[in-house]
């Protein structure tokens, strides 16, 4: 299905190799607040390139000319705030892979918490799909295939090669960044949590984005790697369709507001051409679109145990085992089962927030 893309190496940092404490912080550059103020013209509003529940992201230029993205977190002068920040910095440092956003450094003062990342020249998958200027070419089908595979490899690293393992918890198109070569880089570990060796699930307050949240996570507050697999499946649908995962505008055509439900409905009516992003102008291979759609639906199943691992997703995208798994799924009648979670009934802290606000730290 996919052109050969060489696998990128993984550097595995564990507690055995790197002390899970101050030693890990020493591997990163600790910037002074003055350095980052100069780099961003005192965090000028004209340099803001993103914002969310965590605070803002500014584009900056370091003294050596390097472009960076600086995440300036909201005021965290609360009990335990400094320790929480250090824990997040250490956690991010655990994940080193070509398809994961690498932390360059950080800054911590009594009043500021800042994270410094490489600047991603081509923004996010979401911005390229839905917010690109007229002068920018749309993502072509080969690039979308590479994005799907690169993102899968990055998540597989988080789940299976980091020690301790990491759950992202907010996999979506706006959190998949694109470097100058349009290589996918999984970003934003603001919601990520470390997985304890003894636990298969981590119970937390539900944080995420409507349309991407796995049903079991929404109803129980328990996240697992399969939570990320669900979000990844929805992200694949975004890549194929160019649509938002949750869009009230679809109601105007009596369509489902949830992208997953909208896609399933059109597939039952055998309207594949209607699903594919019009920006592709027909320049895609039907079989490849169908295969990516199959992977997406396998990932977005309602039952966590039925979803593949991300390492299995990588193999399926590379052409290994998809046909067998899809045939098995169809024989079990899984596609005919209608799953429609009610995002408006389940009571949680996100009840009165719009989808963007639900994303929390991004």
Automatic annotation (TrEMBL):
Keyword Nucleotide-binding belongs to the record: yes
A GO molecular-function annotation: protein serine/threonine kinase activity
Main location as per UniProt: membrane
GO cellular component: membrane
Enzyme Commission no: 2.7.11.1
Keyword list, A-Z: ATP-binding, Glycoprotein, Kinase, Leucine-rich repeat, Membrane, Nucleotide-binding, Receptor, Repeat, Serine/threonine-protein kinase, Signal, Transferase, Transmembrane, Transmembrane helix
Subcellular location: Membrane
Pfam family, one: PK_Tyr_Ser-Thr
Catalytic reaction annotation: L-seryl-[protein] + ATP = O-phospho-L-seryl-[protein] + ADP + H(+); L-threonyl-[protein] + ATP = O-phospho-L-threonyl-[protein] + ADP + H(+)
Tree of life domain: Eukaryota
Lipid bilayer topology: Single-pass type I membrane protein
Binding locations of ATP: 71
Domain Protein kinase: 43-330
UniProt similarity note: Belongs to the protein kinase superfamily. Ser/Thr protein kinase family.
Protein name as catalogued: non-specific serine/threonine protein kinase
Lineage summary: Eukaryota, Viridiplantae, Streptophyta, Embryophyta, Tracheophyta
């Amino acid at each position: 299905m996919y052109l050969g893309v060489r696998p990128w190496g993984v550097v595995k940092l564990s507690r055995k190799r790197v002390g899970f404490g101050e030693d890990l912080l020493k591997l990163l550059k600790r910037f002074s607040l003055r350095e980052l103020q100069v780099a961003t013209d005192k965090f000028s509003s004209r340099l803001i390139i993103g914002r969310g529940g965590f605070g803002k992201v500014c584009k900056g230029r370091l003294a050596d000319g390097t472009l960076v993205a600086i995440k300036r977190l909201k005021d965290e002068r609360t009990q335990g705030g400094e320790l929480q920040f250090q824990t997040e910095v250490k956690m991010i440092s655990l994940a080193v892979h070509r398809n994961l956003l690498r932390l360059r450094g950080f800054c911590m003062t009594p009043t500021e918490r800042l994270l410094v990342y490489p600047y991603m020249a081509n923004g996010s998958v979401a911005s390229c799909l839905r917010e690109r200027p007229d002068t920018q070419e749309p993502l072509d089908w080969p690039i979308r295939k590479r994005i799907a595979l690169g993102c899968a490899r990055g998540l597989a690293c988080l789940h299976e090669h980091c020690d301790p393992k990491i759950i992202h918890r907010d996999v979506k198109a706006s959190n998949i960044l694109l470097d100058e070569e349009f290589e996918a880089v999984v970003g934003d570990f603001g919601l990520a949590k470390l997985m304890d060796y003894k636990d298969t699930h981590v119970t937390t307050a539900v944080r995420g984005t409507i349309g991407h949240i796995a049903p079991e996570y929404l109803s129980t507050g328990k996240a697992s790697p399969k939570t990320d697999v669900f979000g990844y499946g929805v992200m694949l649908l975004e890549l194929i369709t160019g649509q938002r995962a949750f869009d009230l505008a679809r109601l105007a055509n009596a369509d489902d507001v949830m992208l997953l439900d909208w896609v399933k409905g059109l597939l039952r009516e055998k309207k594949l051409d209607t699903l594919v992003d019009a920006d592709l102008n027909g320049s895609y291979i039907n079989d490849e679109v169908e295969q990516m759609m199959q992977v997406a639906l396998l990932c977005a199943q309602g039952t966590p145990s039925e979803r593949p691992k991300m390492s299995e997703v990588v193999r399926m995208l590379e052409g290994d085992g998809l046909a067998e798994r899809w045939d098995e799924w169809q024989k079990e009648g899984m596609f005919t089962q209608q799953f429609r979670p009610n995002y408006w009934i389940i009571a949680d802290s996100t009840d009165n927030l719009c989808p963007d606000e639900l994303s929390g730290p991004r």
